[in-house]
Amino acid sequence: MAAMAAVLRGPGRRFRWRTQALAGGVRGAARGVAAGQQDYDLLVIGGGSGGLACAKEAAQLGRKVAVVDYVEPSPQGTKWGLGGTCVNVGCIPKKLMHQAALLGGMIQDAHHYGWEVAQPIRHDWRKMAEAVQNHVKSLNWGHRVQLQDRKVKYFNIKASFINEHTVCGIAKSGKETLLSADHIVIATGGRPRYPTHIEGALEYAITSDDIFWLKESPGKTLVVGASYVALECAGFLTGIGLDTTVMMRSIPLRGFDQQMSSLVMEHMESHGTQFLKGCIPTCIKRLPDGQLQVTWEDRTSGKKDTGIFDTVLWAIGRIPETRNLNLKEVGVNINPENQKIIVDAQDVTSVPHIYAIGDVAEGRPELTPTAIMAGKLLAQRLFGQSSDLMDYNNVPTTVFTPLEYGCVGLSEEEAVARHGQEHIEMVCLKKPPQLVLGLHFLGPNAGEVTQGFALGIKCGASYAQVMRTVGIHPTCSEEVVKLRISKRSGLDPTVTGC
Question: Which of 106, 219, 382, 406 has its CA 20 to 30 A from that of 187?
Fold first, then answer.
């Protein structure tokens, strides 16, 4: 308890903060603060991957830094600690549950390798969830300790702007805190979108904000959406033995290469995940026994149908956390269509000393590693005499579906749109030296494979250079360098992949 108290207090002697205690109200007090000295060199709003990286880097450069972070509970009441989406309800718990599902498949195959495994094999959701949740809590604690070690002040408050240099933060208790800084970074990320126009959507369904913190198994689950979040969740739910259905309005993995996306979906179908294609939900009702009755419509035929599920999970996109920041008050411009903050190449908003990084910024990939690097580079530009900008070209990523899909560079559709069909062959330029525009890999450990090839593509690898690379045998990744283009189809029919 003493250690926890020390972390929560932080090194208070180096930082000044003021609680609201003036009769003139918050705005009156803020004007007084803004007219005087600034309390911090850098104030970061948002304690996720990008915000924490920026704050720690600035502190390492000798600056006085504060981080404010507050998690608004989901409609189902789920909340979590410091670290943002990736740590708490994203990459980390997702990968752990994905691994649990993969282990189940390995156990099924074990007898072929001589292992005698007792049947039937059962999965215990409670045990898995407890282990995942405990690991996430340890990461929450680790982030607090790291902030303390770097003398970064942490405030668990919900902040909004009251002038260009000052925010007012409200704690869970209702206590108000005024903080001001020379530079302010917005790194608030996003939260799952709810289709509030659908009856029962908010009351009865969950999102990725909730699935990883469930104490009990979700049981028979309907996943609505065809995003990577939808397919990843459906994949590990099927993999641990749950009856899982994906309802998709249109195409899977929009924005990714569609040939690869189709193969991912086909693999999932062949391994037990059910798909309702071209359908949209219209109503969710809770039955007396607690189950959920979902009504949906087939967009092609117009016919309606119903099904009974234990859990409905929305995975239909995310919305940036900008609505409660009072950005209009200080002149920070946002895109009115998606509510993301408009920034330039240096992450500067329409207000010169206010910045935005990560998922909350317009035109940025919604990926943890890009937010981390962008945060570090921003701190170095502000306080480290650097001019290096974040390069958002050829950023690799992986979709952790049962058949993993790693990619870097352009999809085939993007390559054709940018260069024309006549100039493209197998996501390479036809014109010598046949630069590789994109690489797409389906198979085990796709992230590890893609990470290596991403360096080559970042350095401008040509098709010939990839073909001259000696593969490591026996591995799945060697199939990439064994590919050959045929003049007729663009693919060597002898290549089977892994």
Answer: 406
